[in-house]
């Protein structure tokens, strides 16, 4: 075998009559170079076509993966072959019998009922996958064909996706909804990036509305530039809380006066509420002085946000925000909505009544909503409408995800419907709400959560305490603080992504920071252990690459490889489910199998050739685990 040919080329040489060119020509949707299992499927399709006469186009998509290794590597459901009149279980038996016993890639299959399970032959699998994974390294699993406008012609360019996520409100709590949006949105952006899309990450800050007039006023009254620079999030939050309290007290006072029948107009005129209203009015009218101050708040906040997001490996291409939606743009949309009879006047305000516009249940569910208040101010929805039209004008996007808590489901439905009614069906079709459930019981030890940092610091501290409990191990950690920080962040993220995103979950500090069970620290530990094996084996890359992989014959070695071979399929499936748990479930299955192999497959202490071969296997496992973790947004630790 030529040393230069790739492991996949060498695989193809084992199979008579099937070349990589054949596969590409006959199954143009396959990509053997990034997903080796596509070759196995193509071959299986050919063999089954020979046995059954069924069109390969029908056979290929019926080849499914299995839920556990004991059920095989692939399986087909006979009824999916659409053969009329025949009993599927009889056919299953017949076909399995006809399957050649000397097939180069598959063992003789076993039928169960309507199904036939296929197990891959271990030798060609191990000899192809292990070197291929090591060759592709951190790109193994990625499939960038998905993002091409034309998969056979990269010059036609990439598809574009806008992912809007995180989107906290300046000076307000960074609540659990924002945490989830940040984690899930970051993951989705990574996913599409790895699938070859042009990804544009948007943080649509809540930074506009009367409450921001109030905040600016608070700064004028009690603000301190030095403190703002030092900790903008905290300072603005404190100001906001303080002035809100005062505002509420005034309102109470005014109400009390009114109740007693006294004149409250003087108090009302100079109240914080009224001053804030006026301040905000100046902001909407484009008063440069107040706007400059407002931009300054935003800038210092964004600087701080960026630092925290970096801890989660999250970044944005644009911090847009509600304030970026111009009054002119909204006036233009308002006119359009009026012309198309989508909105109507009602007692001075402008509203959209979906019950009149959309027939049946859907209209009822969408209800009625105001888009312009009587005093002329625009609302959250008004801004979202103009912002979406603006995004469509600025970006030629194929998809736009709104990663927002399920509480805003109605809001986003209304938004998409209005866009549709504005004769922008094509835009509406590209939009999708990525809806997720609540986090229950999230608070930090110091009380309420002010910002993302508070949550992460708390988890990091907790993790540090967990680590200290094992004194011997703790003493060996070179950089315990940084390690605890990464572990704590992984704990938070994995707990968040563990279940289907639409489900609520309990924020459980004890459970998430445990090294046992399916947690972030467990995954990190599994990764660090693989790294440590490599360090201790002390073999050069060339030595590992020269390993004789036919020495990997133990069931554990074969099963680890079978799991590794699935990773590109798992990636592809994740693009369909859009669920981080698809990745996590796989990573936990993989790490369980790996950790059960350590006793059987020792590296250090084994005979030199065996040592090399096992090291190659563990190295491939390390690569896949790291790739999965990075896709989720975790930073794999090399030591701990
Ligand atoms: N800032 C909003 C909030 O905290 C979330 C923004 C969601 N995105 C949107 N385009 N409306 O509730």
UniProtKB/TrEMBL annotation:
Belongs to the class-I aminoacyl-tRNA synthetase family. This is arginine--tRNA ligase. It comes from Sarocladium strictum. Keywords: Aminoacyl-tRNA synthetase, ATP-binding, Coiled coil, Ligase, Nucleotide-binding, Protein biosynthesis. GO terms for cellular component: mitochondrion. The lineage of its organism: Eukaryota, Fungi, Dikarya, Ascomycota, Pezizomycotina. GO terms for biological process: arginyl-tRNA aminoacylation; mitochondrial translation. It comes from the Eukaryota. Pfam families: Arg_tRNA_synt_N (PF03485), DALR_1 (PF05746), tRNA-synt_1d (PF00750).
């Amino acid at each position: 075998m030529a040393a230069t040919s790739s492991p996949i080329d060498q695989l193809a040489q084992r199979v008579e009559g099937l070349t990589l060119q054949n596969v590409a020509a006959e199954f143009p949707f396959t990509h053997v170079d990034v997903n080796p299992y596509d070759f196995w499927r193509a071959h299986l399709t050919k063999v089954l076509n020979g046995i059954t006469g069924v069109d390969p186009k029908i056979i290929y998509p019926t080849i499914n993966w299995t839920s556990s290794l004991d059920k095989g590597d692939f399986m087909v459901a006979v009824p999916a072959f659409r053969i009329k009149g025949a009993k599927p279980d009889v056919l299953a038996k017949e076909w399995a019998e006809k399957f050649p016993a000397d097939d180069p890639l598959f063992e003789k299959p076993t039928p169960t009922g309507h199904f036939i399970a296929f197990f891959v032959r271990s030798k060609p699998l191990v000899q192809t996958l292990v070197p291929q994974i090591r060759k592709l390294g951190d790109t193994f699993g990625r499939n960038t064909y998905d993002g091409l406008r034309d998969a056979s012609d990269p010059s036609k360019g990439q598809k574009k996706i806008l992912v809007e996520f995180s989107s906290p409100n300046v000076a307000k709590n960074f609540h659990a909804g924002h945490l989830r949006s940040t984690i899930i949105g970051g993951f989705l952006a990574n996913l599409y990036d790895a699938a070859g899309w042009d990804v544009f990450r948007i943080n649509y800050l809540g930074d506009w509305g009367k409450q921001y007039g109030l905040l600016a006023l608070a700064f004028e009254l009690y603000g301190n530039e030095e403190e703002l620079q030092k900790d903008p999030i905290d300072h603005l939050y404190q100001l906001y809380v303080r002035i809100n309290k005062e505002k509420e007290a005034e309102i109470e006072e005014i109400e009390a006066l009114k109740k007693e029948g006294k004149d409250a107009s003087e108090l009302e005129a100079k109240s914080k509420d009224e001053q804030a209203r006026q301040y905000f009015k100046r902001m909407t009218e484009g008063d440069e002085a107040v706007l400059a101050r407002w931009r300054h708040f935003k800038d210092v906040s964004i600087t701080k946000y960026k630092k925290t997001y970096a801890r989660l490996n999250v970044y944005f291409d644009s911090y847009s925000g509600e304030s970026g939606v111009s009054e002119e743009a909204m006036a233009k949309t308002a006119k359009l909505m009026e012309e198309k009879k989508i909105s109507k006047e009602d007692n001075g305000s402008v509203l959209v009544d979906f019950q009149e516009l959309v027939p049946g249940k859907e209209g009822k569910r969408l209800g009625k909503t105001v888009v312009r208040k009587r005093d002329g101010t625009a609302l959250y929805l008004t801004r979202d409408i103009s912002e979406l039209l603006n995004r469509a004008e600025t970006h030629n996007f194929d998809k736009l995800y709104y990663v927002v808590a399920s509480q805003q489901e109605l809001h986003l439905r209304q938004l998409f419907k209005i866009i549709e009614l504005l004769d922008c069906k094509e835009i509406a079709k590209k939009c999708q709400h990525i809806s997720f459930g609540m986090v229950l019981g999230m608070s930090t030890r110091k009380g309420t959560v002010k910002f993302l940092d508070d949550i992460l610091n708390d988890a990091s501290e907790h993790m540090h305490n967990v680590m200290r409990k094992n004194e011997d191990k703790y003493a060996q950690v070179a950089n315990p603080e940084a390690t605890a920080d990464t572990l704590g962040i992984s704990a938070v993220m994995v707990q968040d992504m563990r279940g289907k995103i639409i489900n609520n979950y309990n924020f459980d500090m004890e459970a998430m920071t445990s090294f046992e069970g399916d947690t972030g620290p467990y995954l990190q530990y599994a990764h660090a252990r693989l790294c440590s094996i490599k360090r201790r084996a002390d073999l050069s890359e060339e030595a590992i690459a020269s390993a004789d992989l036919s020495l990997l014959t133990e069931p554990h070695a074969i099963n680890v490889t079978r799991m590794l071979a699935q990773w590109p399929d798992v990636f592809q499936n994740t693009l369909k489910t859009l669920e981080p748990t698809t990745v996590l479930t796989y990573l936990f299955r993989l790490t369980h199998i790996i950790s059960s192999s350590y006793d059987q497959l020792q590296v250090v202490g084994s005979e030199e050739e065996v040592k090399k071969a096992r090291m190659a296997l563990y190295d491939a496992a390390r690569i896949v685990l790291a790739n999965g973790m990075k896709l989720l947004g975790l930073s794999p630790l090399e030591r701990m």
